[in-house]
Write a structure and sequence with these properties.
By secondary structure, the protein is α/β, with parallel strands linked by helices. The chain has 18 helices and 18 strands. It folds into 2 domains: 7-295, HUPs (Rossmann fold); 344-494, Isoleucyl-tRNA Synthetase, Domain 1, CATH 1.10.730.10. A 6-stranded parallel sheet has the order 3-2-1-14-15-9, sandwiched between helices. A 4-stranded antiparallel sheet has the order 5-4-8-10, covered by helices on one side. Bound molecules: 5'-O-[(L-methionyl)-sulphamoyl]adenosine (MSP).
Length: 517
């Protein structure tokens, strides 16, 4: 049993394997990775889960199109999602595949509980279904495309389906869901999305078809082999499978459930904020604490789609700009929760302006002065002036601001606030002009450089979750030992020790230079 009283369980959606990983997948997982790293450094025992959603009609169709068995198909394509973890330096603790035995046991048990509680009944489904969204739509939700065909609100094609089906009594959960949202005002973030979900539930819920008979690629319904479970019931359950369900006495279940955060894209909020808590409450299991719905990326102003051929491959981005610059850009560019646009111009502007200029130059000029003028060791400091104290206090305060923003997944605000301190450091260097002090007052120069080194230590510690490799390099340049890099070591109590020898300074953030045409 885990003895750390602070736990944090964060999950990504599990990805459909019929797609190749693109910027959207990388984005959702990145946000979770930054949070997971932040919480670990902040003393939490973290479980960070990601994985692949391998059942359903869409995957079965993709496998058929390739002429391979669905299991062989998913074995091959789910690997690409595991490869992405390494490319992006993601620190997940588990990777779940819905085709695993542990998951089958878990979903079947959840089904049995719902059945035993009278929450599921057998009937017939006649209605619209979208294979692309793996979602049932009510007639009144549908729109028409240019040719007059009915399409889903997402733009996906729909087909009329008539088959025997088990139904979950979702219609009976509306009031309890609304009460739950009311009692847990931060269950759905951002707030605008919460209103959207509340109106949907207030509009009245229909019972939900939770099994299919017209294809085979799924988890069989216990006791009725003609049916396989609806892929979303199957997929959502991954979040409890991974903590040991159906064994609720399991150490991980006890420690981590209910999950602290399901991170999802705005398109799949309804499944997570309506269906999932209803399934759980109906089975007598506590719902998760929060669902955060982030926005979507466009590419140079255009919707990203395979047919437009403008899908952004995270591997290409990383090769072109470097991993940590990409991680920084994605977390900084848009208010988290809003849609964002990826453009080469915006990427280079942030890379060169904020990383190379603001932060890279600060570190480079401070550390090279220290290297040349302080015997390549942490400078000796004298009395601190008011300006010095003010600068140091700003650095000490970074963590409190950052923590507040991270608590509500406001990554962009966390970075903005850290950059306020970086810019304050640049102002302080210009004001104190240590290069002038070198001749006039070398002792004072050392104090100024000490203050700056200590500020850079704070900045680098707090930026680790966003840019782990670059900050590792920066902390190495300050000779901060690997055991002294958690947030316990922030503050003056663990300040740099004057006289500690430092390695030769090296630039951490190269400027992006346009390759010759
Ligand atoms: N398999 C389901 C999730 C089941 S979770 C129990 C699924 N998979 S998905 O692969 O289609 O999508 C995964 C995530 O990628 C979603 O959160 C979606 O919002 C995100 N994105 C897909 N395209 C995106 C962008 N263009 N921009 C940002 N995120 C996007 O849905």
């Amino acid at each position: 049993m885990n003895t750390n009283p602070k736990h944090y369980y964060v999950t990504t959606p599990i990805y459909y394997v019929n797609d190749i990983p693109h910027i959207g997948h990388a984005y959702t997982t990145l946000a979770c990775d930054v949070l997971a790293r932040f919480q670990r450094l902040d003393g939490y025992d973290v479980k960070f889960l990601t994985g692949t959603d391998e059942h359903g009609q869409k995957v079965e169709k993709s496998a058929q199109a390739k002429g391979v068995d669905p299991q062989a198909f998913t074995d091959e394509v789910s690997q690409r999602f595991r490869d992405l973890l390494g490319t992006m330096n993601f620190s997940n603790d588990d990777f779940i595949r819905t085709t695993e035995e542990r998951h089958k046991t878990s979903v079947q048990e959840l089904w049995k509980r719902l059945m035993d509680k009278g929450e599921i009944y057998l009937d017939k489904y006649a209605g619209w279904y979208s294979v692309r969204d793996e979602a049932f739509y009510d007639e009144k939700e549908l729109k028409k495309d240019e040719e007059g065909n009915k399409i889903a609100p997402t733009g996906a094609p729909v087909e009329w389906v008539e088959e025997a089906s088990y139904f979950f009594k979702l219609s009976e959960w509306g009031d309890r869901l609304l009460k739950f949202y009311d009692e847990n005002p931060d269950f759905i973030l951002p707030k605008t999305r919460r209103n959207e979900v509340t109106s949907f539930v207030e509009g009245g819920l229909l019972d939900l078809s939770v099994s299919r008979t017209t294809f085979k690629w799924g988890v069989p319904v216990p006791g009725d082999d003609d049916h396989i479970m609806y892929v979303w019931l199957d997929a959502l359950t991954n979040y409890i499978t991974a903590v040991g369900f159906p064994d609720e006495t399991h150490g991980e279940f006890q420690t981590y459930w209910p999950a602290d955060l399901h991170m999802v894209g705005k398109d799949i909020l309804r499944f997570h904020a309506v269906y999932w808590p209803a399934f759980l409450m109906a089975a007598g299991i506590e719902p998760p604490k929060r669902v955060f719905a982030h926005g979507w990326w466009t590419n140079e102003g255009q919707k990203i789609s395979k047919s437009l051929g403008n899908v952004i491959d995270p591997i290409d981005l990383v090769e072109k700009y470097g991993l940590d610059a990409v991680r920084y850009f994605l977390m900084r560019e848009v208010p988290f929760g809003n849609d964002g646009d990826f453009s080469h111009g915006a990427m280079v502007a942030r890379m060169n302006g904020e990383l190379a200029n603001d932060l890279g130059n600060l570190a480079q000029r401070v550390l090279s002065m220290v290297g040349k003028n302080c015997n390549a060791a942490v400078p000796q400091h004298g009395e601190f002036s008011d300006d010095d104290k003010d600068m140091l206090n700003q650095a000490y305060a970074i963590i409190d601001n950052t923590r507040e923003h991270m608590d509500v997944q406001a990554f962009n605000l966390a970075l903005e606030d850290i950059w306020v301190v970086i810019r304050a450091c640049n102002g302080y260097v210009d004001r104190q002009a240590p290069w002038k002090l070198k001749k006039e007052d070398p002792a004072r120069m050392e104090t100024v450089l000490y203050v700056l080194a200590e500020c850079i230590r704070h900045i680098a510690l707090v930026l680790q979750p966003f840019m782990p490799q670059a900050m590792e390099a920066m902390l190495n340049l300050l000779a901060v030992s690997p055991e002294h890099r958690s947030f316990d070591f922030l503050g003056e109590g663990h300040a740099l020790i004057p006289g500690t020898s430092l390695p030769k300074p090296e630039g951490v953030f190269p400027r992006y230079v346009e390759p010759e045409a």
